[in-house]
Design brief:
Blueprint: H1 2-30, H2 32-39, H3 44-69, H4 87-114, H5 123-155, H6 161-190
Helix pairs in contact: 1-5, 1-6, 3-4, 3-6, 4-5, 5-6
Length: about 190
């Protein structure tokens, strides 16, 4: 039941991001010259590296889900023996990668403001910060959810299907956020 509820909620989130995409394309169609000028200021290689970091967090998340499904919350071997990592270790790595993504995105914002792209500078700035900013808020929400799942796993006397289900539905959300970013990245940074 929790999985179905999460999927229905993610469908509503999809509609929210669809509205943001519609706003982006509408304003872009109204001011193509502005888009050409402003997108030239974007640091595509920098954003690509940040995208790779976020996408790699989906892999660590899924490895944590596999461990949760095996009811293996914590590692059974040494810290550097990745084969013996449990869900907690993989989710901690996911939180680290997601935190790096958000931090790099914040740094990118400061660089863009220094180059004259601010939220209130023009339509491009407004759309750029709204789409990527709302995505960043969703990533931050996912990081909080991961920390709650990690905390629950650490205090649970017996890690069972209840805890595993929580880990699985958080992974649904995380994969959704990653897919949305891939679409945003392709549209904002590559679509000319």
């Amino acid at each position: 039941m929790v999985s179905v509820g999460t999927v229905v909620w993610l469908a509503s989130e999809l509609m929210f991001f669809a509205a943001l995409f519609a706003m982006y394309f509408t304003l872009r169609a109204a001011s193509p010259e502005m888009w050409a000028t402003e997108t030239a200021k974007l640091n595509v290689p920098f954003a690509l590296i940040n995208t790779i970091i976020l996408v790699s967090s989906s892999f660590s998340c899924q490895l944590g889900v596999f461990r949760a499904e095996d009811l293996k919350p914590r590692r059974t071997g040494g810290l550097f023996n990745l084969k013996e990592w449990g869900m907690v270790e993989w989710f901690v790595l996911t939180v680290i990668l997601g935190s790096i993504f958000v931090s790099v995105q914040a740094y990118e914002y400061t660089e863009l403001v220094a180059h004259g792209i601010a939220m209130n500078s023009n339509a491009y700035g407004s759309v750029f910060y709204m789409t990527t900013g709302f995505h960043g808020l969703h990533v931050a929400g996912g990081l909080i959810a991961f920390m709650l799942i990690i905390g629950r796993a650490l205090i649970a006397r017996k890690f069972g299907h209840f805890e595993a289900t929580g880990a699985i539905v958080v992974s649904y959300y995380w994969h959704f956020v990653d897919v949305v970013w891939i679409a945003l990245f392709a549209i904002i940074y590559f679509l000319k």
